[in-house]
Automatic annotation (TrEMBL):
Protein origin, superkingdom: Bacteria
Annotated signal peptide: none
Record-annotated membrane-spanning stretches: 258-282, 303-336, 356-373, 399-417, 423-445, 476-496, 715-739, 760-786, 798-826
Domain ABC3 transporter permease C-terminal: 261-374, 717-825
Protein name per the record: FtsX-like permease family protein
Source organism of the structure: Aquicoccus porphyridii
Entry GO CC: plasma membrane
InterPro entries: ABC3_permease_C, Membrane_comp_ABC_pdt
Alphabetically ordered keywords of this record: Cell membrane, Membrane, Transmembrane, Transmembrane helix
Location in or out of the cell: Cell membrane
Any Pfam family matching the protein: FtsX
Bilayer disposition of the protein: Multi-pass membrane protein
Length: 837
């Protein structure tokens, strides 16, 4: 049997220690640690969200209604099943203090709030005392909003037509993770204080949340089903403590999945180092393999012997990586818990560790199988002459097929764990394409250097550097592969980040409105339009009726069953109505309804979103608007451009369908920057209930989110680059003996230390420059593809970021080469040349 013999050989070989495998272990451990660390933090957040689900939600369960309060019958149903019910209204408004106006997210609560958790105020007074007030109703505010408006505790400010007294700063809001994206800091008031504010009129934009404190042991699944059955047609959205912050959980899952894919690119870079280490190790075992072959060892025995050694070392690297990936988050748990905006329970979680171990094992097998397989094709005589130089480039067919199988398994695993097949396939295609481009570039650099070194006759150092790059022992391929892929990832991240910021900060202001105005009542529209349309600084005004509704069914089936997790069916959507076809509306399919249409409900749907959801003309859409189901037939698709930050609706209904329903209007105003403050002041003074959303503030909030995402992605890409640098060090270490021999020969022929060192550094710099240029090209291509196909934004090359990548390639190779070059120069020529005899 070859296996027992191979195991015995492998065990004896491993007695020699781990010399030569430092880079192998470091590359594998670093990649596994990055993935395990990301997964462990994700698992900690998910555990925290699960444990604190009730506190994050503010109750054991929540029923949310769109722009209306529960009917007496609905409220009675809740009170029969819950120990306590808390009613909350949530909406945006303008806080006014003197001449200062700021957008705020208002939460109007009742006496039962909060059912779970506690509100923390500064000064530390009870919430009911803070909201009770004395001469005026009390309110508490986010410290950021207090500072922005220049308020002090005890000052009065207004929301709509109601004045409030600032009683305290809102330090902690227990259910703040459930609100999702918000354009303004929080203001907390009592629900009863808004009765005369004009902010909760029929048709205005607000949502109500009914938090339920349930008896112990309540079956949440059964209660949810009962709620949907008993309150059918109410348009309710249900959440419970099992997933208290679904938006946060979804964001964490998607971001961590993306970061793990970035971490896989680091493992791919590490794979290059792993492959190089195995190749160098086997080259050093020439005599041993030759001896085993002459003593009768079969191909299978030799292959298994060294495969077992590599497997044992891979297991060690994976264990080290798992220890780092799980241990570092545990050690930094207090710091991470304080930095994260959501609760996290740090512990050892098997699932992310298994995922990281699987990735590590598949990567190690993928990158070591090829060099291991090549040993079978070498004759004993060839082994005695020169290591693996006589081996064919391609191993036997079965190993090529096995390599393809391992690659497929790695991609399939990433698709399953990340939850995004499309993103995984694009990432895998990008990594494979980058590796192929870098490999071809490395070979091209060798060819060009081989031809160019003859030209540089008057510059010896340059000639030596080019000859070394183009020679048979050239480091071009491993250097370009190792540092190039890491730089490619960083370059792509830099280009994507720069273009997203450009789309937000550069492109949008040329087209975007100054303000969105919402909650304009129908009788306020004449006065509103008179103010803005007669202002010479206003270039354009758009207005439309505005309702909000939930897409509950498509063709009689639940909307999520037909459209999946598409954003149109995930929450409530903006809906408008129009009689004649509005100016500028381009119908791409179907026909608009007649001007005087008064038949069954009809709807015009946004063409791009309809295609994504698989809708066709004649399909029916059921909308729940203010608790009433309206089923409309799709008669046309139209082009809707959301990229300009202007007015756009996915759904436009015929007027007869919804015109009688309570609703308000929205408007966009395009004005010169110097006139914005006066417009806001005049409109808020005349119409206190109107809410103005400054587009620049919304852009800044999106930019803040991009900062966090870009920082997280950059850290992931930095791990890839660090792995590439380790591979560079390994390549430099592997070539140190050849570099020492080269220096000894040149010294013997009269070359100075300075000229030899210049040659070594020039060689490293040229390779780093080539790797940086190729990486820049790959990063630009990847950034363009993602910007164009995924984000659908215009793309332009961000040259400062790109040039920094090129400079980084040069610096990295110089640093990796410098230490080994100095060691080579310090060796005496006689000792080196005698050893080569």
């Amino acid at each position: 049997m070859s296996l027992p013999m191979a195991a015995r050989i492998a065990r004896r070989e491993l007695r020699g220690g781990l010399r030569g495998f430092a880079v192998f272990l470091a590359c594998l451990a670093l990649g596994v640690a990055a993935i395990a660390g990301i997964g462990s933090v994700r698992a900690a957040i998910e555990a925290g969200l699960t444990r604190e689900g009730a506190a994050l939600l503010g109750g054991d369960a929540e029923i949310e209604l769109t722009y209306r309060f529960a009917t007496p019958e609905e409220r009675a149903w809740m009170e029969r099943r819950a120990d306590a019910v808390s009613e909350i209204a949530d909406f945006r408004s303008m806080a006014v203090f003197g001449d200062t106006r700021a957008l705020t997210q208002v939460k109007a609560v009742d006496d039962a709030y909060p059912l779970k958790g506690a509100v923390q105020l500064d000064p530390p007074i009870p919430l009911d005392e803070a909201l009770r007030g004395s001469d005026l109703p009390g309110a508490v505010m986010d410290p950021l909003l207090i500072d922005r408006m220049g308020l002090s505790i005890g000052d009065s400010f207004s929301l709509g037509r109601q004045d409030f007294r600032l009683a305290a700063a809102l330090i902690r809001e227990p259910d703040n993770a459930t609100g999702g994206f918000s354009l303004g800091p929080r203001t907390l008031v009592h629900r009863d204080a808004l009765s005369g504010s004009g902010l909760l009129e029929p048709g205005t934009l607000y949502s109500t949340h009914y938090r339920l404190s349930l008896p112990p042991g309540t079956d949440l699944d059964a209660l949810e089903q009962e709620a949907r059955a008993e309150l059918a047609g109410s348009g309710l959205r249900w959440r419970d403590a099992r997933n208290g912050a679904p938006n946060v959980a979804r964001f964490v899952e998607r971001l961590s999945g993306f970061l793990i894919l970035v971490g896989l690119s680091g493992l791919a870079v590490g794979g290059v180092g792993v492959s190089a280490a195995v190749r160098a190790y086997l080259a050093g075992k020439t005599g041993t393999i030759a001896t085993l072959r002459t003593l009768g060892a079969t191909n299978a025995t030799i292959f298994l012997a060294y495969a077992l050694q590599i497997a044992a070392l891979s297991a060690l690297g994976i264990v080290i990586g798992l220890a780092l990936g799980s241990g570092v988050p545990l050690l930094l748990a207090p710091i991470l818990a304080a930095a994260l905006p959501v609760p996290a329970v740090f512990s050892l979680y098997p699932a992310p560790l298994f995922e990281a171990a699987l990735y590590g094992a598949l990567t190690a097998a993928l990158f070591t199988l090829w060099p291991l397989a090549r040993t079978e094709t070498i004759r004993a005589a060839t082994l005695f002459r020169d290591a693996l130089s006589g081996a064919p480039t391609w191993p036997r067919t079965r190993y090529v097929l096995a390599t393809a199988g391992l690659l497929a398994a790695l991609i399939a695993s990433a698709a399953v764990f990340s939850g995004s097949v499309r993103l995984t396939l694009w990432t895998a295609a990008g990594i494979i394409a980058a590796l192929m481009i870098l490999a071809l570039a490395g070979l091209a650099i060798r060819t060009m250097a081989r031809r160019a070194h003859r030209i540089a006759r008057t510059r010896p150092a340059t000639r030596w550097a080019l000859a070394a790059i183009g020679g048979p022992r050239s480091e071009a391929l491993p250097v370009v592969l190792s540092i190039g892929l890491g730089l490619s990832v960083l370059a792509a991240v830099g280009q994507i980040d720069g273009n997203l910021r450009g789309a937000i900060s550069r492109d949008l202001p040329q087209e975007a409105p100054s303000y969105f105005f919402v909650d304009i009542q129908k009788d306020q529209m004449p006065g509103f339009l008179d103010r803005v349309e007669n202002d010479s600084a206003v270039s354009r005004v758009q207005s439309a009726p505005m309702l909000r509704g939930v897409v509950s069914q498509i063709n009689g089936l639940p909307a999520s069953q037909v459209a999946g997790d598409h954003w149109v069916v995930r929450g409530d959507r903006g809906i408008t109505y129009a009689g004649p076809q509005p100016d500028g509306t381009r119908v791409t399919a179907g026909e608009w309804w007649p001007d005087d249409y008064s038949g069954p409900p009809l709807v015009s749907f946004a063409a791009e979103e309809a295609a994504e959801m698989g809708l066709s003309l004649g399909d029916t859409i059921t909308l729940n608007i203010l608790g009433r189901d309206i089923t409309a037939t799709i008669t046309s698709f139209r082009e809707v451009d959301f990229s300009t930050a202007g007015m756009g609706f996915v759904l436009t209904l015929d007027p007869a369908s919804v015109a009688a329903a309570p609703h308000s209007f929205i408007a966009t105003v395009y004005a010169e920057p110097q006139a914005e403050a006066a417009i806001l002041r005049d409109l808020s003074d005349s119409f206190p209930n109107i809410t103005a959303i400054r587009v620049r503030d919304a852009i800044d909030r999106v930019a803040e989110m991009l900062d966090g995402i870009a920082a997280a992605t950059s850290w992931g890409a930095a791990v890839t680059l660090l792995t590439g640098f380790l591979v560079l060090i390994g390549a430099a270490a592997a070539g140190s003996s050849a570099r020492a021999h080269e220096a000894a020969v040149l010294k013997t022929l009269g070359a100075t230390r300075a000229s030899i060192l210049t040659s070594f550094l020039l060689r490293a710099g040229l390779l780093g420059l080539a790797a940086g240029i190729v990486a820049l090209g790959a990063g630009i291509a990847g950034g363009w593809a993602i910007s164009h196909f995924l984000f659908e934004t215009r793309f332009s090359v961000i040259w400062p970021s790109g040039l920094a990548i090129v400079a980084g390639g040069v610096v990295a190779t110089l640093v990796a080469s410098a230490g080994f070059s100095a060691r080579a120069l310090a060796v005496r020529p006689a000792r080196v040349l005698r050893a080569r005899e």
